[in-house]
Amino acid sequence: MNLKNKDFLLRVWLPLVILLAIGVVFAGFVLFLDDYNSRRDLLLQARLVQKAISRVRLNELTGSAADTNLPGYTILKEQLTAIRSASPKCRFIYLIGRNPQGEIFFFVDSEPADSPDYSPPGQVYD
Questions:
Q1: Alpha helices of 1-126 — where are they, by DSSP H?
Q2: How many helices (H) and strands (E) does the chain have?
Q3: Hey, how many other C-beta atoms are within 10 angstroms of the C-beta on 107?
Q4: What is the DSSP letter of 13?
Q5: Contact at 8 Å (CB) between 97 and 121?
Q6: What does each of the 126 residues of the chain score in pLDDT, given as a tens digit?
């Protein structure tokens, strides 16, 4: 390789490669921060909902269709619906549990019973 080619590499390509590497690192950092902030906000929202939910009413639920007849179920459903309405970024809010077989199931969701997205109490989450 002659001196002109080495000089061209050092003056043009090396700065371009360094700039590209800095750009990739910066983009990765920005993505990391965005992910971190999104997770932090979601956790904060989940904690706020947790504070609004009565453990007494939640403990009354069995995770079956019979729950729909309980006054506590109706109150929890109204609370989740109100929270979802106040949170434009949320499409669904629901309380879930795990049955003895290890399956995740719904206790209460925020959807109206006539909605195609409604998940009745006890429905297993696939």
A1: 3-8, 14-52, 55-60, 71-86
A2: 4, 2
A3: 21
A4: I
A5: no
A6: 555 677 777 778 888 999 999 999 999 999 999 999 999 998 998 898 888 888 888 888 999 999 999 999 999 999 999 989 888 888 889 999 999 999 999 999 999 989 999 999 999 998
